[in-house]
Amino acid sequence: MSSTTPLVGIVMGSDSDWPVMEAAAQVLTEFEVPYEVDVVSAHRMPHEMVAYGEGADARGLKVIIAGAGGAAHLPGMLASVTPLPVIGVPVPLKYLDGMDSLLSIVQMPAGVPVATVSVAGARNAGLLAARILGTGDPELLGRMRDFQTELNHQATEKGKRLRA
Ligand code: RP5
């Protein structure tokens, strides 16, 4: 990608989510997709959170990846104030194994979609963002095809090793 303007916004409810969320940043780096990272807590910074969501498309973002744990309202609240696709990442906390985060994010009311990945599925969130952007970027789509070919190769090799 030639642009250095962030196309993906990676946000989270707390810096304590970063150890999970950094996998999204890593994969976007691998795919050379420019991104930005910030903490935008739905509960502790509600006004900033709304401002972030409302201004995201005007700033050039195309996809938002939002991670949160516990009563994880950030992805859904962002989806309610932006027309951009929002990918939600349930972050597991000390109790309940992330099931609380998953259910908080995935059970959205009709009309306000959040593409929810698995608990701690930040890498897949990054890959999904790259696929969404790839629909308008043949070069990025080609990189995704190469990535899939490599995945296939690795899985095939694992099978060969087991059969040997
Ligand atoms: C959520 O509360 C955050 O997304 C985080 O997962 C959780 C705990 O935050 P801290 O107390 O660690 O800042 O809003």
From TrEMBL:
Its EC number is 5.4.99.18. Residues 6-155 form the PurE domain. Substrate binds at residues 14, 17, 44. InterPro entries: PurE_ClassI, PurE_dom, PurE_prokaryotes. It holds the Pfam family AIRC. It catalyses: 5-carboxyamino-1-(5-phospho-D-ribosyl)imidazole + H(+) = 5-amino-1-(5-phospho-D-ribosyl)imidazole-4-carboxylate. Pathway: Purine metabolism; IMP biosynthesis via de novo pathway; 5-amino-1-(5-phospho-D-ribosyl)imidazole-4-carboxylate from 5-amino-1-(5-phospho-D-ribosyl)imidazole (N5-CAIR route): step 2/2. Belongs to the AIR carboxylase family. Class I subfamily. PANTHER family: PHOSPHORIBOSYLAMINOIMIDAZOLE CARBOXYLASE, PHOSPHORIBOSYLAMINOIMIDAZOLE CARBOXYLASE CATALYTIC SUBUNIT. This is N5-carboxyaminoimidazole ribonucleotide mutase. It comes from Streptomyces qinzhouensis. The lineage of its organism: Bacteria, Bacillati, Actinomycetota, Actinomycetes, Kitasatosporales.
